[in-house]
Amino acid sequence: xxxxxxxxxxxxxxxxxxVTVAISGDAATDLTLTPTSLTFTPSNWNRxxxxxxxxxxxxxxxxxxxxLTHTASGPNYGGIIATVTVAxxxxxxxxxxxxxxxxxxxxxxHQVMDALEDRLSARPAAGLQLTVAGEAITSAPPxxxxxxxxxxxxxxxxxxxxxxxxxSSFSFAPEQEGAAPRLAYWGQGAFSSFRREEEExxxxxxxxTLLLGADWSRQRWQAGAALSQSWGNGSYESERGxxxxxxxxxxxxxxxxxxxxxxxxxxxxxxxxGYGWGQLSLNSGWPRR
Length: 289
Description:
By secondary structure, the chain is of the alpha+beta class. Helix content is 16%, strand content 48%. The chain has four helices and 16 strands. Strands 8, 9, 10, 11, 12, 13, 14, 15 and 16 form a nine-stranded antiparallel β-sheet that branches. A four-stranded antiparallel β-sheet has the order 4-2-6-7, with no helix packed on it.
């Protein structure tokens, strides 16, 4: 709707003379065809020629199957007819876009909150702490302590991109004599999938998030900020009149300052704020048939 699409045509065999292909559609529709006639010669018979279809805004034929008839005339092609079926889809799936944006924001928020909860509940430790695909990397000999990681790296145990993302993390705090680490750096991955069904549409997708953070701690206080980068991919299906479907791709960058105050060794209060920005691309597809 309000846009255009194109396809190409060529002959299957070399004709002995010029062949004309006339293109026509249902006269009741408001589609525009450019051009409406193609000519093939014995020298260009197999070179694809392009036909462009344009639909106006607010057309009355959204979701309808429209047949375009191609009638050939000329040597070796007299009376040959071919048909291409096209459909016009709505270009403003507002409800689907809003629902996806809302679900993406909630998913990223949950991922960040879970990561910060893990971070703030852990006791600060000096040095480098590294986990890859759920396996802790230590300074011990590889065969003694890293059997699980080696098994995954060599392909004996299945290792998926999801496990590599959500089960990998690191933290680093400089060594300090006689005092707990104050400045620390950390990172973590997260992966979530979702499916949401409403009366008018359904959403299906996944979100991958990588977080990098730094915090400063002193006695009962801990404060810091985390930077996140998220990628969302999925699809939508509309149950409304046109039955349109499509794919959604999105990216979101977020900044999350956070802080915690320990009331007791086991009880504390913490809070997080956030601001994000990104892009969302919604590619409409053909209606379901």
